[in-house]
Amino acid sequence: IIHPANTTAVRMSLASMQGDTFSFSKMIREKGVMSLYDGIAAGVLRQVFYATSRFGLFEECRDRLHEIRGKTDFAGRVVVGAGTGATAALISCPME
Length: 96
Prior knowledge:
76% of the residues lie in helices and 0% in strands. The protein has four helices and no strands. By secondary structure, it is mostly helical. The chain has helices at 2-17, 24-31, 40-69, 74-92.
């Protein structure tokens, strides 16, 4: 439900920038309902890279932290989570 809403918002914004009026019904009539899902492959691929790298890096870094410190406390997991989340975002979408 989010992707079609985002696609509609982007097309509405682009039409506004070009000085055109946006019509949802005209878009559906000309391009079809499935045009709401244009570009979804890129979003899914980004999510796959982000989720797998985030989880994989977190597990590895958390285990290394435990080996170094001998314990894994909440603060350590927060720091590791923030660092691995940022690294995963860098891997999956460098422009973020």
